[in-house]
Amino acid sequence: MYKYAFCIPFLYIYIFIKKTNLKKYHLYFFINKKFFYVPLLLKLISIKYIIESYDNKKEEFEKLLDIELTEQDGKLVYSSTLDISSKLYQLGVIVTELPENLRVIGDLILVDSDITQLPKGLEIEGSLIANSLKIKELPNDIKVKESVYLAESDIETLPNGLHLEFTLSVANTPIKTLPSDLEVKENLYINGTDIEDLPNTIKNVKWFFDCL
Q: Which of 41, 75, 135, 151 is least surrounded by CB atoms within 10 angstroms?
């Protein structure tokens, strides 16, 4: 019977999931080095949430990322740079989606995160930093003020209405065309793409790296 002893901790976890209302969450397990079972000591098993959806978006997002949001004009506002990447290392929390109508006053940093789709109504006063992200498109209503960094990502298309003060980087991505009304005032990086033509709105870019 002892050969099945290692299954007992997982049985307790299964019962815990069934008895709690965690239907909208997956669980991510960190097991500290080894189990303890007779005659060994059982080590603590700590459970962290992989955030995929929220019953109460504002409160759940604040609690699980240890941040504070304010509600303004239908937006959930974060008043500084929001670094989702660092939360993985600081809190052991893996974020796979963001709440809709999120407004970030600083930068939104998603490098190495598990987000595959950005929410509707996203506004970023600083830059979107999402290099290497497995994301194929941006929301049609996204607003980014400064720069967009999507190098080495899976981006295939960009929305109309993207007007950037500084930089757009889509280097080494599958993207083939740029929006006809795209505006970038300083740097444009398209090396490693199949982009052949630039929109007429791109004229005064300071630095341009062609892939041809």
A: 41
**Beta pairing, strands 75-78 & 70-72:** antiparallel
**Are the C-beta atoms of residues 98 and 73 closer than 8 Å to each other?**
no
Cα gap 7→4, rounded to integer Å: 6
Work out the burial of residue 185: count CB atoms within 10 Å of its CB; fewer than 13 is exposed, 13-18 middle, 19 or more buried. middle
Other Cβ atoms within 10 Å of 118 Cβ, number: 22
Strand 45-51, strand 26-31: pairing: antiparallel
Query: Which single residue is written with the structure tokens 């049985």?
Result: 11
CA angle 22, 25, 30 (to 5 degrees): 100
Q: Any idea which residue has 């997002």 for tokens?
A: 61
Encode pLDDT of 99-121 as tens digits: 999 999 999 999 988 888 999 99
Sign of torsion over alpha carbons 128, 132, 134, 137:
positive
Kindly report the pTM of this predicted structure: 0.72
CA-angle at 147, arms to 141 and 150, nearest 5°: 80
- The answer to whether residues 155 and 177 touch, using CB atoms and an 8 Å cutoff, is no
**Residues 45-76: tens digit of each pLDDT:** 333 444 444 445 678 888 878 889 999 999 99
